[in-house]
């Protein structure tokens, strides 16, 4: 860390005077609670972060898929690093672990699908959009792009209906979200009209989503036990999604649709990994600054350009390595409040670990002062980043946002992209990481991220593609925010009337 950076950090922690102008009043109110610059920031070293990330993103962990032995093996490695750093276990029963069950509902491997002369493997040659029990043989009718006029010309009752995907979003959401909603909603309309099955065929735009995301359907659906989406469904009309090159034969007249789909359900173990560094203040040590991330990714899947392992270097080995570095800093120089570190399992399966931990914390829920969440922090432009939860309606603590903005201004000085935090952003990125369950409980929460990129959820998300200098700065920014919160007299105030848009 250079001298200029040290001086800036000192200014931040002594006065919080360098934040954006709109934060000045809150800074003035809390100026008496600031502390000296932490000497331990030097414990956050790029070499350590790079070493740890290369371990977690290595092929030996096969992509750390939630609910698999690969996730558990990687979790054991993380727990061992916590122990070697010297943090106390804060999981269940005096361990670093909080185990929980995730439920998986999927089609059985013996499920079958045939359209005309084409024998298709469900969720390999053709996607089954939702697991369902169904045994159907029916005539197939093609209705073009399924405009009301086209459907109105055809009697769909008792038939399997094939149509080509068309259209584009008009309400600002991403095309991917629009497409998945279209598959659901248009299938429901045709089923209501009497169709016994619905077959979608991709156009060129939908094909790009099919190529990138169709692999997720093979896994089925995941949730916590009791979640509606993983209950074994009653028999319902199957919804099939075909690639674009199927159009030439799917539109032919006089074909039969035949399928025999069977659903099965399993419970798998996943795990949260939890450690703490006790605070030094007799009273404030009972409160926690929670540093959050997730250790899982997508596992091993069908090869893409010869690579079958989705290593998840940016998503989210970056967050995992960052938290280990922050632990070293807090171990070297504890704060007044305690620091709590939680690696959430099965995030990629629907924020399952954070949903479970926020509802079943190993410390009193009311003792969690803030949540600082690390999610994908090592790609894109070296001078840009984002702080999600910093603008309404996602902001639930102006105090916390002021501290985080001041830490950035005094430290790395990232150019912050606020577009991704707006409710109008097409990706809905705020709703897709582990801070969300805590924010829904009203706990002040923000997410540190360098945003999406072309390698997101592909086998190309490799350790060699990470910008380690940027990741180190992101880690320091997160640490300095947490350090400031951990040493204030007062916990950051919650935003009155906080309510998310969905």
UniProtKB/TrEMBL annotation:
Signal sequence, start to end: 1-26
One Pfam family of this chain: Peptidase_M28
Segments forming domain Peptidase M28: 272-478
Claim: Signal is one of the keywords in the record: yes
Gene Ontology annotations of biological process type: proteolysis
Keywords assigned by UniProt, alphabetized: Aminopeptidase, Hydrolase, Metal-binding, Protease, Signal, Zinc
GO molecular function, one term: aminopeptidase activity
InterPro entries in the record: M28_fam, Peptidase_M28
Keyword Metal-binding applies: yes
Protein name: M28 family peptidase
Record organism: Hymenobacter aerilatus
